Amino acid sequence: MYKQPYLIEYPKIGNTLQGYISVAEKEKLPFDVKRVYWTYYTPEEVKRGGHAHHQLEQILIAVAGKIIVETEMPGGIKDRFILESPNVGLLMPTYCWHTMQYSHNSVQVCIANMAYEESDYIRDYNEFKLIK
Predict the structure, then answer these.
(1) CB under 8 Å, gap of 24 or more: what pairs does 21-28 form?
(2) C-alpha to C-alpha distance for 71 and 16, rounded to whole angstroms
(3) 72-84, pLDDT tens digit by residue?
(4) Can you list the positions of beta strands (E) in 5-66?
(5) Handedness of CA 72, 73, 76, 77 (dihedral sign)
(6) How many C-alpha atoms does 50 have within 13 Å on its Cβ side?
(7) Which region, left, alpha or beta, applies to residue 41 given φ > 0 means left and ψ of -120 to 50 means alpha?
(8) 8 A C-beta contact, residue 80 and residue 69
């Protein structure tokens, strides 16, 4: 049985007069962090992702704008998440096929459990569908 994607809510500290800060401390991270990266200036008509990972787990956070994330797990369990709050992250477990579509002003931060490794990617959807 595979872990399913799920939302993680981080503290939202502050107020509307002074602004907010959110913190992802070790207690709220389900893995040791090995890499942090971000995406931005993605045209609205572009869908990113279209892959899964053998070992990589990551948390996606829309620190600005809106990101629609569609997921599929082995066995065909599909879900759709709308990220538009900078204090909410989406845990993407291993073997989670996903696509992402961004609003024109979105900035996505990804917190990952491993460094980039091309061999970890499953980029062929037919290969993904064979995973049981």
Answers:
(1) 22/86, 22/87, 24/59, 24/89, 24/111
(2) 33
(3) 999 999 999 999 9
(4) 6-9, 13-15, 19-21, 35-40, 47-53, 58-64
(5) negative
(6) 5
(7) left
(8) yes
Q: Yes or no: say if 111 and 33 are a contact pair by the CB < 8 Å rule.
A: yes
pLDDT in tens, 19-69: 999 999 888 899 999 999 999 999 999 999 999 999 999 999 999 999 999
Compute the Cα dihedral for 40, 44, 50, 52 and give only its sign. positive
CA–CA separation, 41 and 56 (whole Å): 24
Say how many residues make up the chain: 132
What residues does 82 pair with on adjacent strands? 68
- Which two structure tokens, joined as six digits, stand for 100? 């992402």
Q: Is 129 helix (H, G, I), strand (E, B) or coil?
A: helix
Q: Which of 51, 53, 54, 104 is catalytic?
A: 51
Inter-residue contact 55 to 122 (CB < 8 Å): no
User: Is-catalytic flag, 51?
Assistant: yes
